[in-house]
């Protein structure tokens, strides 16, 4: 796992100096080594910071050059099946000089071109520069586990794993009010937007080519090389929901074991986050079942708070005989590191600070790699959205919907919930309106009431990539094969798709990467694997209907303590609902909202009432830290 960057800047007399600042702005994500490549023909360079996990020797130094072709790669991530691919390439006549997965990508691309991409299993973002063709290729993994941002300003082109690299280089980065509005709508900034104008996130499962013509960068539209519809090529998924049988359970079990085993590929020790929930406990259970002898686990403790899960984590650790460590987090702990958290955050989010704290503890314990249960809720139906979205979709088709929603709004316990219900009625023709009702933060009407100073994204859960308003030569492409996916998926498969594509990609995975890598910790997500999705989706509806949420995961895993199986559902989050009402955080939030209101001339009165969800107040406060 690493950090990567690149720059083309014909107006700068010191490309190397700028690139060095970009690279070293991300030093925490790659503390073990650093490198740079400068083109002999153009004011262009690639840079790399390394967190060594596979082949710890200097042979893994990057950027890496091909010995026979004018190709240079800078790579962030892990290719879990690199040994198999390496052997295939050797059988085809390739000769390797390292034991790295980086060289596998480089030689695979040199031999097969873009055909190497579907063969890669892992998490990755990389850039390959072809000196002869004067062409740069940027690639991002299927699910968006590893980040990659790029920008175009006149004749200057740049890319990096973190947005802070662009700030450190001194590039002008005006805030995008469209992106800020999307953040308030959803709690995260949806791909391909970033907080800054003319800077984009490369969509997951996409690549983009940049070609130089008369020394001018020409940025193609990003091209989709994988999307969720590709799962339908699997016969079982294409057939829709299948019966839940012992054979189905065994098929899912084998897929879980397969994913876990490939995620253990490393030349360093691999630990695990353990919250005491079903997802993280299932990972630890499977680790024990496949024979991992010594399992190290880490969890967060909130002393005396109802969100504290430490008793369940200790139960799981004792049950599976792990070496367990805890990190105690209180409000003073949060405030003591708030400035650093904000700098790490890179762009606004309402989540992720929990990952910052537990990652810090894991790294202090000597771990470089941990497994996380992230993605289990999205894949196995753990969220309330799996109950509510199909139900709301049925209501959308009813002529009694307006009356039903009026009754529900009247009975709603909070003003913001009533407003979301009213917005749902107005968007009843949109199949994703039900999802926005469950997941959304502020409605369009509320942003208009706030006097938001820019046009609003029509629907943050629609594909912004296809919006005509994106007038730029770098306008990211749209995986149009997913357009009609609702028509071919079962109701619960569709919710899994929505949660995976939007909430998991835009928020959870981005936050997990940026906050773990801030401590030089590689976070791996065995549940976020396209092979596992193909194995689970055919049985998701049947298992959910005839049991309880996550029945498929519980029964395929086996050996989980009953107290954990039947415990109340609880997210892995900080107790912000209480903390934002305590000093000094309460005063800091009030000051932040006041400054945000003055800077953007907003009216915030009535939008953060005592009965509102804490995330609304927190979102406005976090945004104030970036735009004021």
Q: What fraction, in percent, of the residue positions are helical?
A: 40-55%
Please tally the β strands and state the result.
Answer: 18
* Rounded radius of gyration (Å): 24 Å
Tell me the CATH architecture of the largest domain.
Answer: 4-Layer Sandwich
Strand content: 15-25%
Low-confidence stretches: 464-479
Tally of domains: 3
CATH fold-type name of the largest domain: Glutamine Phosphoribosylpyrophosphate, subunit 1, domain 1
Give a quick account of the main beta sheet: strands, pairing sense, barrel closure: 7 strands, antiparallel
Which CATH top level class of the largest domain fits? Alpha Beta
Structural class category: alpha+beta
Question: Termini, distance in Å?
Answer: 33 Å
Features:
Rossmann fold; globular; asparagine biosynthesis; amino-acid biosynthesis; 3 domains; ATP-binding; 6-stranded antiparallel β-sheet; ATP binding; single chain; Glutamine Phosphoribosylpyrophosphate, subunit 1, domain 1; asparagine synthase (glutamine-hydrolyzing); 7-stranded antiparallel β-sheet; 628 residues; 27 helices; alpha+beta
